[in-house]
Amino acid sequence: MATATRPDESRWQSWHGKFIVEERYVRPETRRNLYLTSSILIPLGILLFIVILTSVLQQTGPARLDRPVELWINSLRSPSTTAVMGVITTIFGPIFLPIIILVATVAWALLARHLWRPLLLAGAMITGVIVANTIAPIVHRHRPPTDLMLIGSDSTPSFPSGHVLGASDFLILLSFLLISRAPSAGRVVLAAIVSVLGIVAAMTSRMYLGYHWLTDTLASLSLSLVIIGIVIAIDTWRTVRVPGEPVTGPASQPQRDGT
């Protein structure tokens, strides 16, 4: 005897299938490579963070570069460069970046009529904020001297840099979530160039303006690798299927590579 489906359950399945499910068919090697990428990024990010944190606590290794890099960047200061760096740090700051993410998430969900990738991006960004705000008071590293800070003093802990973590997560994850559905060599190269330039700009602006050491920014980048690896693993597990596998939602419409 067939089991009757409750109306509320049917509505949920219909909504879930239309707005959440975003399964796509790819070649088996494509899914394997996605999992391989994730399995490399996560331990690599953890290892790099441990190395950087240890060097900061013991003032050895990479931490020895903090002062020389600070002196070199300070020697490049000029009014026009300061203005540019101020704009960059504002864009990736705690006020403007959340607004950008909110607008991008809402617009993406409305235009694509899908929630999976916008929610994944927003969730990863929130995770980055939580991670940074959890680690900073534990390590409690002092920032560079306040007389080096160009746009106001800041006495909050320096390690890691929230600006750089946010910039890295946003640029790389947005690129991945967009390009993974329609991959091409040109798009990958363009996204890589934009992401690298954006991350370097965020790192440089925080050091140039006198708010972070080099190792603060490197620690953020290593944490970002972990978050990105986790997102790739979750997205692959949830959306990637190979031919012959069943889809999980009655209204899902699997995509093919390149669509």
From TrEMBL:
Transmembrane segments: 34-57, 83-112, 119-139, 159-179, 188-211, 217-234
Keyword terms of this UniProt record: Membrane, Transmembrane, Transmembrane helix
SUPFAM superfamilies: Acid phosphatase/Vanadium-dependent haloperoxidase
Ion transport in keyword set: no
Domain Phosphatidic acid phosphatase type 2/haloperoxidase: 117-232
Superkingdom, natural source: Bacteria
InterPro entries assigned: PAP2/HPO (IPR000326), PAP2/HPO_sf (IPR036938)
Any coiled-coil regions, as ranges: none
Protein name: Phosphatase PAP2 family protein
